[in-house]
Design a protein that fits this description.
The chain is built from 8 helices and no strands. It is globular.
Length: about 190
């Protein structure tokens, strides 16, 4: 149960950038379009799950070599991702046009917000022993978060500024989670 709690926090944290991208896209859509919502949710979900799988498999391949210092790897990977998400939150410029109208651009955005999923897959391979359920959960949660984000964005576009710091919050959660993993492995917690 403890493993699933860690995993859910990781997936929710890395999906806050998907949520932010989806909300932003929803603000730019001229009307509610469920086909577009599904397209965004499925694309983000599949790309996020694939990146997670690649990271997980890479971590499994290197598990024997890395097991003596895996807690440090997890800490620094989560720290780097968290700091990157916080910095990106304050440096990004909002797009004037949406990305979901062109499938190549949509996949590009999905890949950009899924790079973290590769690193999370790597970290997860060090902490968890099973794959299928977790890969499905990555897809399902990413789909759900992205779908809800674009729906909310299109429904409440006038409230755009109220969701401004969700990516930075996700970054802080990842940093704290990495610190918790490190402290547990060092025997402090």
């Amino acid at each position: 149960m403890k493993e699933i709690s860690y995993f859910l926090l990781l997936v929710i944290s890395i999906n806050l950038d998907c949520f932010t991208s989806s909300v932003t896209e929803g603000f730019l859509l001229k009307s509610i379009n469920y086909k577009r919502f599904l397209q965004i949710g499925i694309t983000f979900g599949l790309v996020q799950a694939l990146f997670f799988l690649f990271g997980f498999l890479g971590g499994r391949f290197a598990a024997n070599w890395i097991s003596s210092f895996d807690h440090w790897v997890a800490f620094f990977v989560l720290l780097a991702i968290g700091v990157h998400m916080i910095i990106e939150e304050f440096q990004q410029e909002k797009e004037a046009e949406g990305f979901s109208g062109d499938f190549k651009t949509l996949v590009g955005v999905a890949m950009a917000v899924s790079i973290d999923a590769f690193a999370i897959g790597l970290v997860t391979s060090l902490l968890l022993k099973t794959l299928a359920l977790f890969a499905f959960l990555v897809f399902a949660l990413t789909f759900l978060i992205s779908f809800i984000g674009v729906f909310l964005g299109s429904s409440f576009s006038k409230f755009a500024k109220k969701i401004k710091y969700s990516q930075a919050i996700g970054g802080v959660i990842l940093i704290l989670l990495g610190l918790k993993i490190l402290l547990e492995h060092l025997g402090v917690l």
